[in-house]
Automatic annotation (TrEMBL):
Cited InterPro entries: Cation/H_exchanger_TM
Name by which UniProt lists this protein: NhaP-type Na+/H+ or K+/H+ antiporter
Lineage of producing organism: Bacteria, Bacillati, Actinomycetota, Actinomycetes, Mycobacteriales
Positions of transmembrane segments: 91-111, 117-137, 157-174, 186-208, 229-261, 308-330, 342-360, 372-390
Annotated signal peptide: none
Recorded GO MF terms: antiporter activity
Species of origin: Rhodococcus rhodochrous J45
UniProt domain Cation/H+ exchanger transmembrane: residue ranges: 17-389
Amino acid sequence: MNAFVVVGLGVGLLCALGSRAIARLRLAAPLVMVTAGIVVSSLMHEDLTDLLDESATEHAVELILALLLFVDATEVRGGLFGGERAVSTRLLAVALPLALIGAVVLGAVLLPFNSMVVLVVVACVVVPTDLAPASGLLRDGRLPERVRRTLNVESGYNDGIVAPIFVVALAMLGENHASEDTGAAITHGLQASMVAGVIGVAVGFGGAHVMRLVTSRALTTPRGVRMGVVLLALVAYSAAASLSANGFIAAFVCGIAYHAIRTATGTLDESESELELAEDLATLSSMAMWFLFGATVSYLFELGLPGWEVFVFAAAALTIIRIVPVRLSLLGSNLPVPDRRAIALLGPRGTASIVFGLLAWQGITDIDDASLVLYVMTATVLGSIAFHSFTVDRVGRRYVRTASTTQSRSS
């Protein structure tokens, strides 16, 4: 086994065992893993080219994404939309498409020598949000609960919505579809997504009812239930992949269907229980991705910095491409203006962007296009770590000042 992988596993073990100490230092675990990845890769002088290109790495990343999508779909508490159906629908059905379009348009201006399909892949990499690098956000009592709940719902679903677009665009840039007609490729992708959706619904729906049956008759144990939930995600992904369908969509839809049925029947214990193992595995997988991301940062730094256009695009992805669509989508909503502003500002990028970026690196035939996507992903995620660590605290302090001012005026 690659020595770098062994060291990475050791770093993950230390991070897991020291999780309480890390929390006391007010550090985010992803930041620790990124730093460790950069340091270890630099000290070992590891050439990651072979590791990133290995088929085993690709399969591992695909399984990790499938598990993350399943868990994202199941971890929304308080129903499918966390009690914020109207606001969440605006973010997912209006803001998300506008952000994707905005990213493609800006890419056409800043990165004009790339095909439209490459720009679509880039947009799919930089737009999905992930609360992992700003996990303290959900526990920050300064932020209104409604804001935190809405951000959690958005983060849970947007990567699953973007996934089919990403997979179709990536397939058009791969060896097997390089000469395929664009219309045919899109049609094939839509068919694969629909088949995957059917599989996901069937596995999630059937799995939820089987789970209710065996638990009500005491035919299984809590451990068996927890393992069964993880296996549901893998069954959905594998079944879709075996039929040349979109395994990511199958896993995501499976999670939605499972969560919906278990919640509707009142048999899902939202305090933790049956989802614990899946969530723990997703967290562990996410840690691995952050470590690999740190090594990727070191690897790209040794190759050389990209053009200024990449950094401008990454900065725009974290600001105007996020803020403008969200503010437009929330016009006329019942959210107070400060809450709309907070939701627009708080859109960290993380594991989803890393996984999409690594899959793009492995799946795109043209090395220049693949390198561009990897550079953009790296710049965006690094920028997000810096930008949102500052933004979360600033937004929280603004809420405190506003509350203090209101209280002073009322007294």
